[in-house]
Specification:
By secondary structure, the protein is mainly alpha-helical. The protein is built from five helices and two strands. It has helices at 2-16, 23-38, 52-63, 71-93, 118-134; strands spanning 98-101, 106-109. A two-stranded antiparallel ribbon has the order 1-2. This is Myb/SANT-like domain containing protein.
Length: 142
């Protein structure tokens, strides 16, 4: 019985040690990545070159000296989340009846031209992501 209790404590510690990024840290992170893209730190396959995450860690440490953000697990995890979010937005925008509003920085729905309902689009995207995640494909932005 104690073995199960220890496993629960380990799981609780893992959840408690997750880092919550501040808005300022996230903004700086994205700005650093944008800067690295303009400096050709991306490969032809649109993934970042080796060592980019370490450069990002050093830049974040210069901006926020006490933040404690490390490549692993913080930056690696944030990159994975951003890749997933980008993929979802890209999938939605590829469907008819959706567009990007540059002023509000959000997706808009055009209800006038027989577009699928937003719920149908979300179901379709979720179905496709489940299928994509079943394969042996690795995410290559890292």
């Amino acid at each position: 019985m104690e073995v199960g209790g220890n496993n629960q404590n380990v799981e609780r510690l893992k959840r408690a040690s997750r880092r919550i990024w501040t808005k300022q840290e996230e903004d700086a992170f994205v700005t650093i990545l944008e800067d690295l893209v303009t400096k050709d730190y991306r490969c032809d396959n649109r993934s970042f070159k080796l060592g980019t995450n370490l450069i990002t860690e050093k830049a974040l440490t210069n901006i926020f000296p006490t933040c404690g953000i490390k490549v692993n697990p913080h930056i690696d995890s944030k990159m994975k989340v951003l890749r997933k979010q980008y993929s979802i937005v890209y999938d939605i925008l590829s469907k008819s009846g959706f567009g990007w509003n540059d002023v509000k920085k959000c997706i808009e729905v055009d209800n006038g031209q027989g577009a699928e309902t937003p719920a149908d689009i979300v179901d379709d995207i979720n179905r496709n992501h489940v299928i994509d995640n079943m394969g042996d494909e690795e995410e290559s932005l890292n």
